[in-house]
Amino acid sequence: MGEIASPSQLRMSLVRCALFTVPLILLLGIGSGRLSGAGYGDPWFDALVKPSFMPGGGVFALVWTILYALLGLALAIVIHARRARGRELAISLFAIQLAMSLAWSPLFFAGHQVQAAFWLIVAMFTVAAVTTILFGRIRTGAGLLMLPYLAWLMFAGLLNFEIGRLNPDAETLAPTAASTQIAL
Asked: Which of 7, 30, 64, 116 has the most C-beta neighbours closer than 10 Å?
């Protein structure tokens, strides 16, 4: 009864945790984007002047799918490190940066708040960087899995900044449903 778990049992425990965290984060991320009308096809977004280095819509879908899967796996690894020092703080900061990430699409796409969305990315990057360091202290692999996310946040921040610079009147580019005028 007092036996320690075998390596295969520990691996299966991590796999079970990842089978929960990866789909959960994927669903949350995809849901946030869908509910806010994110991306190409949105009249407001289509009306924006985009920077020359802006990727196509398919790139965003692919990259975010990969990033959410990596985030879910990194979280599972840290959750699985049950007795690790600083684990609770690392998980709490992960949840905070994830909530910020999920809030970005509604702020940018639904709220048309380009400047506020930029500052949210700055805050998100800061919290995600600290989370990455803490994850890396707990399990090196978990910290490494966070690095592509940090790189993408820097790129997304640059895109957001350039969109704001190129579109100083971004909030008023496309009429909202409440301000639609009908000519008689």
From this structure: 64
